[in-house]
Fold this protein.
Amino acid sequence: MTTADASAPEPLTPELDEQIADIFGRRDREHMQPTIDAFLALLAEHPTQPEVLYEVGGSYDTAGEEATALGYYEAAMAAGLSGDPLRRCLLQYGSTLRLLGRHEDSLAALDRALVQWPVSPSVRAFHALALHAAGRSDGAVGELLALVADEIRTPDVLRYEAALHGNAGFLIGLDGQRER
């Protein structure tokens, strides 16, 4: 794996962003090797570029090569990944750590994402998965109840929004998690 020099990350140009989007758009989740190869070729041209490092990691992750993906995610973050790509990276990194049985590390990554993006539905859902994997089912169910109350805006759910939030807070409190 190539590691980035955190002191001099290459900026994401519109042309490079377009190349990344093109490679990502052509990916076949059932046959990831062409995508991995395309991103590795792009990384050879742009070895310090955080978004390229992140996409290489994501490609390996999608291919089921989680242990390889971790190093690229870590390199992307060390290279200065920021904004929404950082949110996605932390989510995928946390999920990968969970799949590898590193539950506390998974929660730490997803906790970091929650601090920066507390209303991101995807971060909240994957945080609940990490809580569940770590044996903290009360917190996981509480997180999901809060997500339902916050994100599903149907008349039926809105009628019970306060009850859902109350139960979520109770369960999260039982689990020792912070209140939402």
Remarks:
- DSSP finds ten helices and no strands in the chain.
